[in-house]
Amino acid sequence: xSVYLYNTKTRSKExxxxxxxxxxxxxxxxxxxxxxxxxxxxxxYIFEDLIANTLRLHGYKVKHxxxxxxxxxxxxxxxEGEDKMLKAAEQEKKSVMEIAKHYEDTFxxxxxxxxxxxxTIVCRATEHIKDMIDFxxxxxxxxxxxxxxxxxxxxxxxxxxxxxxxxxxxxxLKHGARTEQDDNKxxxxxxxxxxxxxxxxxxILQWDSPWxxxxxxxxxxxxxxxxxxxxxxxxxxxGGIDHIPVHHExxxxxxxxxxxxxxxxxxxxxxxxxxxxxxxxxxxxxxTTIDTLKELGYEPMxxxxxxxxxxxxxxxxxxxxALDGAKKAYENLCEYVAEFKANxxxxxxxxxxxSDLESLKAQFNDYLFDDFKTPLAISHIWSVxxxxxxxxxxKLAYLMHIDSVLNLNLKSVEAKTEDKIEIxxxxxxxxxxxxxxxxxxxxxxxxxxxxxLLKLGIGVKDLPNKEIELIKL
Length: 473
Ligand code: AMP
Ligand code: ZN
Description:
By secondary structure, this protein is of the alpha/beta class.
């Protein structure tokens, strides 16, 4: 089966056809490192990691690029409000770079605790200022940018496609018109490419540019860095749904204006993690982080399991009750893995089992190939795990396969040892006598032997087909 994915650009599910069969290119908007990523942000990164892993599962090599925003992001996604980094530095009495380093390091600690693969390239905005300046100069040369009262703006009137991703026309996208009107803009939807007349007198991070000393607007970093690392056309671009109407419209406008052709083939957007009171967001005090969850007794894998139980295009509602359910389910799954590891023989499957395994793997893969249907993939896992007709070896091989894509840390679960029963010659003899007694329907004798076994700390459960299960008491 091919991979199918829902493309925001066409509002439909499409067969994935990469530009280059050898390597898929994927760009994901990364964190703004002025505060801890909350678990809503991490839901988006978990799915981006899953997209890359699913493509790898299909056999593609994936070049995954993610930026780190350490300059230029104002408290609104447009050009309004305060500089997020500067505000955090003032509040925490640290330098902007200390703030950036601390939150970036914590972000990658959290993603590694969630077993997310580090993107192939992680690029910081502050290390790509020259690329951004060159990009803006090019836009200016091509007539898409104008200088007005110290700042360089993108002229959205010159880009008729503006609004194509969100399906809105330009007049509806009046960024900057909500709380502050920037009179330097020719059109309300225009946005800043480069600031020199900073609203922030104590702006620390500034660089020389052809327009004077200043710093970049937020959107330009993604266009400049993705083109640098992935070339002029990209297969997949991801982000949360909040990025569709502003940030991604602006990225498209800048990139396609400069390049002169379509830029991204598939736009994939993740729905929100909400709380009972609405979207979890940093600006409204969304402070639940992976560390908070750990303090409450939920391991990162429990949160990851929770996110996989909903589809990435549906909003998920976070609550401790929902997480309790995920915790129970995840711990149960690990119990099963421990049991299969203890009961598996040598891992060698006969021909029938091997073909059964291949079809189970294919069914699981197909759920992921069909627009990453993780809830169906999770129920498939449970149907396999609970199937008493399948051997421990088969189930274990299947679980190791799913773990190579979902990375739920099942590989490191240890075989259950404490319940292993050592069958001494005495126990063996009693079990043999019990078998004979039951075959002769001598129930009194069978009960007598069962009591002797109980005294040795062993329970006996009769299963269908005259099989028995021994339980260590
Ligand atoms: P930021 O660090 O604010 O730029 O956000 C990082 C990523 O998280 C972006 O892709 C956002 O779209 C995404 N995001 C923000 N809030 C949420 C949320 N509540 N649920 C899921 N993703 C989110
Ligand atoms: Zn971006």
